[in-house]
Write a structure and sequence with these properties.
Layout lengths: L7 E10 L2 E11 L4 E5 L6 H8 L7 E6 L2 E2 L5 H7 L1 E4 L11 H9 L7 H9 L3 H14 L5 H17 L1 H4 L12 H14 L4 E5 L7 H16 L3 E5 L3 H7 L2 E6 L2 E6 L1 H5 L2 H8 L2
Parallel strand pairs: 3-8, 3-9, 6-7, 7-8
Antiparallel strand pairs: 1-2, 1-4, 4-5, 9-10
The protein binds adenosine-5'-diphosphate (ADP).
């Protein structure tokens, strides 16, 4: 029979920094509906891998395909359009925008009505200037059709509802006034608002206490139940083991083991390189 195609296919991916092989020819896949986690010691290349998959930085070798389309040659904005949304390790909510506007901002990169404006923004060459341009557009209000406006509002509401207890009462408050955990929730809601094929999360529980971490785990399990494909970097092993279909272990820019969580957890190579330290 036909082998079902992976959603994300990473093939012999490479990236160096001043001769240091941060990512040294790694290959892995994420299937539709699959939750895959990358673990490994500090400096093993996890964040660099996410940066390469999302186009934050370009690779020096190898190829990446999403749904059969090559994305390793595209920039971050194009990759987002293809259906990859991410959050960052340190959180990147726009401080002066409200929760609702922060969630909405992400959607403007994928909506058709905003396309002429987006191309305009892209004329500004620099990614950050383009981002600022999009923000400006988001603030002055894209002249989206009424239907699109309704779609935006409904999606924003739905994603805030996901974190209702936490974000519901704060939806009109500026991000700077939120707790750290709520800023991170806002960021996840923003990534989800574009209905990504692949959600990429870089340490979503970093800086969170155990109860906040448990809450994120619940939300990840909900997303998994909804069939959301997720590529996750996370230090908290209990969370990784609870949510992942597959775990990839990196060390020194290479994949030293991968497999089902319960298998990886007891792999002597993994215990030596990671869990034992
Ligand atoms: P991890 O996420 O597993 O902690 P990283 O992907 O952040 O690891 O880093 C992998 C290696 O690449 C480290 O040695 C790190 O110092 C190096 N590195 C990462 N980003 C850069 C950069 N922008 N410039 C120089 N070196 C970098």
């Amino acid at each position: 029979g036909r082998v079902p195609r992976a959603l994300l296919e990473v093939d012999r991916l490479e990236r160096q920094f001043d001769g240091l092989k941060a990512v040294d020819g790694i290959s892995f896949t994420v299937a539709p509906r699959e939750v895959v986690s990358i673990i490994g010691p500090n400096g093993s290349g996890k964040t660099t891998t996410l940066n390469l998959v999302t186009g934050t930085i370009p690779p020096h070798g190898g190829r990446i395909t999403l749904d059969g389309v090559r994305i390793d040659t595209a920039d971050a904005a194009r990759i987002a359009e293809f259906g990859v949304a991410r959050t960052f390790q340190n959180g990147r909510a726009f401080a002066t925008l409200s929760v609702a506007d922060n969630v909405e901002v992400g959607m403007h990169s994928t909506l058709r009505a905003s396309r002429p404006f987006r191309s305009l923004a892209h004329l500004f060459l620099l990614r950050w200037v383009a981002l600022l341009g999009e923000l400006f557009i988001a603030i002055i209000g894209t002249p989206a059709s009424r239907r699109e406006r309704a779609l935006i509002d409904a999606t924003v509401a739905a994603e805030i509802r996901r974190f209702e207890d936490r974000l519901g009462p704060r939806r009109d408050d500026p991000a700077y006034s939120l707790s750290y955990a709520n800023r991170r929730r806002t960021e996840i809601a923003r990534a989800l608002a574009v209905r990504p094929k692949l959600l990429v999360l870089d340490e979503p529980t970093a800086g969170m206490n155990p109860s906040e971490t448990a809450e994120v785990l619940e939300q990840l399990l909900d997303l998994k139940a909804e069939g959301q494909a997720i590529l996750l970097v996370e230090h908290k092993l209990d969370l990784v083991m609870s949510v992942s279909d597959r775990v990839i272990v990196m060390d020194g820019g290479r994949i030293i083991a991968q497999g089902r969580p319960e298998v990886v957890r007891h792999d002597p190579v993994v215990v030596e390189a990671y869990l034992g330290r």
